Amino acid sequence: MPNKGETLLRVEHLCQYFKTNKAVDDVSFEIKKGEVFGLVGESGCGKTTTGRSIIKLYDITSGDIYFKGERIAAGTLSYKNHIKEAKKKYKEEAEALKKSGSADALNAKKAELDAYIAEQRRQMKEARRDHKKHKTVTEIQMIFQDPIASLDPRMTVGQIIAEGLVIRGEKDKAKINEKVYEVLEMVGLVREHAERYPHEFSGGQRQRIGVARAVIMNPELIIADEPVSALDVSIQAQVINLLDDLRHKMGLTVMFVAHDLSVVKYFSDRIGVMYYGKLVELATSDELFKHPLHPYTRSLLSAIPMPDPDYEKQRKRITYVPLKEHDYSTDLPSLQEVLPGHFVHCNKAEFEKYRKEVQE
Q: Residue 230 CB: number of other CB atoms within 10 A?
């Protein structure tokens, strides 16, 4: 088994903005080699955008993404903002120094500003270079949410699965076909399916084709974007079990994006909870269900139905209203470690409150 202490993917201060819409805002986490990292939240919270940004379907606005210790994606907005803030600060300080008549101090401040701007521009240039250098990373593959929309209806299943190998430069048709047949059988389909078209398959079979397309590239990390949300409940379990078998067989690391916490708990080692583009809580699966600290996490857990009529009669839904729960007018929040490995987005007052809760 892979060493779970080794960090495979590290995301630092990831921001993905679409004009004024902050789809992902200052998100940081890391994924260890061989683990399943669950990312949960309601529709529109930014979890899918996070996955798409990691695989470079989007050019990220700001932040850094490292894969196997190497920066594969970087945004430049933070550097531009730092320059803007530094110029604003210098302008205020320069006005005060001019009034006091301190020319030497003013020149020193100007030199300091120029050096700072030069350094920010150097880092911006490096970020652009690293981002361009790693245009595609075939060791990261994605399984998409909609098994119908993600498959080209004009291509056969064999062509769809083999496309990545062809793009990578493989020209031996016999070798390509053999590899396609191998992964088809690996995901529970048969060789004859390679000659058929996507419309000839059920939803569960189409998702298996999507899984085959991802694993044929022999990736180290798979981003599974709600791979079971469009499927029947019985088929969901089959696809989850398939992914679990493949990760053990191939030594895969999985980032599992979903909104169903009960599925995520079964499949994930650690879970990150997102709300409105922010990562609000991060902990191991057992710890998150044992000590949910952020009110939004508690709200999500309260929405999980149980196959028990007596429990369902008594179950109380918790509604999360940010304005009622938090007062960030003076003390702004950040992601803080309340317990070892358990992070919560909170300010100082909330941090102390959460620490008391877990110690009781």
A: 18
Tens-digit pLDDT profile for residues 216-234: 999 999 999 988 887 888 8
Tokens of 289: 């269900």
Question: Which residues on adjacent β-strands are paired with residue 281?
Answer: 273, 344
Burial 87-126 (b: 16+ CB within 10 A, else e): eeebeeeeeebeeeeeeeebeebeeebeebbeebeeebee
Round to whole Å and give the CA distance between 88 and 215: 50
Distances (CA, A) of 328 to 24, 168, 343, 349: 20, 50, 18, 10
What's the pLDDT at 141? Answer: 95
Neighbours of 155 (CB within 10 A): 14
Is-contact 282 339, C-beta < 8 A? no
Determine phi and psi for 350, rounding to 5 degrees. Answer: -65, -35
Q: Over the stretch 334-359, which tens digit does the pLDDT of each residue have?
A: 999 999 999 999 999 999 999 998 88
> For the chain, which residues make up each domain, given as ranges?
7-68+219-360, 77-133, 152-217
- pLDDT, residue 3, reads 45
Instruction: Name the residue among 322, 342, 301 with its Cα closest to residue 41.
Output: 301
Structure-block tokens of residue 353: 């409150």
Q: Rounded distance, CA 212 to CA 187, Å?
A: 6
The CATH code of the domain at 7-68+219-360 is 3.40.50.300
Tokens of 252: 């895969």
